[in-house]
Amino acid sequence: MAPRAQWKGFLKFGEVVCPVALFTAASTSDRIAFHTVNRDTGNRVRREFVDSVTGEPVGRDDQVKGYEVGKDDYIVLEPEEVAAAIPESDKTLAVEAFVPLSEVDDLYFDKPYYLSPAERMADEAYALIRDALKKRQSAAIAQAVLFRRMRTVLIRPQGDGMIATTLNFDYEIRPAKDAFSDIASLKIKGEMLDLAKHIIGTKKGMFDPSGFHDRYEEAVAELVKAKIEGRTIEPRKEPKREKVTDLMEALRQSAALGSKQDQPTKRGSKTAAKTGTKTAGKTGAAAAAKKAPASHRKAG
Asked: Where is the Ku domain (predicted)?
């Protein structure tokens, strides 16, 4: 079944207007999800809002937004007042500038979307914008009201399509100096730096996201499967970690190990081969969960 568009509107490139649609590119919907249940009855627990002072339940119609101006002092905003603050939308991704792809700092990346033509008559205009960006090795910066907020979007070509990534605003990015201010000013050189460069060379590979696996998700899938089958999984023992006291010796040992390994391979390919059965285990757990008795499904 074709995915459902999250947003439909128009991409405006000068005087060229192209109907487009946004589709979610990254999603957590395939992760195993849990409900909170009562251990004694197996029934789901219902979340309820209560007044922090009186302890009385507060109905949905009486719940409003509040901005704290002092301790326990709030400015109340009615739903219609909040709605009035939402920018008016003309459903247009208006391109404001074009920037070289090499200058885009991915620190500002928020969430990626696939940007596709919204109808067949838009194919030519879409291909024109895509190919022009490819030729110039550029990305388009556009703004639009998306999901109730004004957002800045970076649009770049990828294969036959384009990716639209919402960007964080400048005020949302914390200054790097806050995190790096306590780093000592050191210049590493000589044998120590040469060894580190050698280790990097022996681990050279290609980025292949399919070779990396969510080990937590796989472990949870196996746990669910074991519970359904009535098996017990023993808690794993924490590995013994030795404290590194001699950085140079640690580098030498790492360089020696790297030299013994095979020639560089595609990053993650060996891992994928070893963990393929675990990934299949997740599918098995999901299938087993569907067939489990009602008493088991409640707990899931």
From this structure: 55-185
pLDDT in tens, 89-127: 889 999 999 999 888 899 999 999 999 999 989 999 999
Q: Rounded to whole angstroms, what are the CA distances from 246 to 222, 252, 253?
A: 39, 10, 11
Nearest to 4 by CA among 29, 35, 38: 29
pTM: 0.72
Q: In the structure, how many helices (H) and strands (E) does the chain have?
A: 8, 9
Q: Map out the domains of the chain as residue ranges.
A: 7-29+86-172, 191-299
CA atoms of 256 and 162, how far apart (whole Å): 44
Whether 18 and 129 have beta carbons less than 8 Å apart is answered as yes
Q: What token pair was written down for 18? A: 């192209």
Tell the residue number behind the tokens 């000068």, with chain if given: 14
Say if CB 193 and CB 269 are below 8 A apart. no
Instruction: Determine the pLDDT at residue 268.
Output: 45
Judged against a pLDDT cut of 80, whether residue 271 lies above it is answered with no
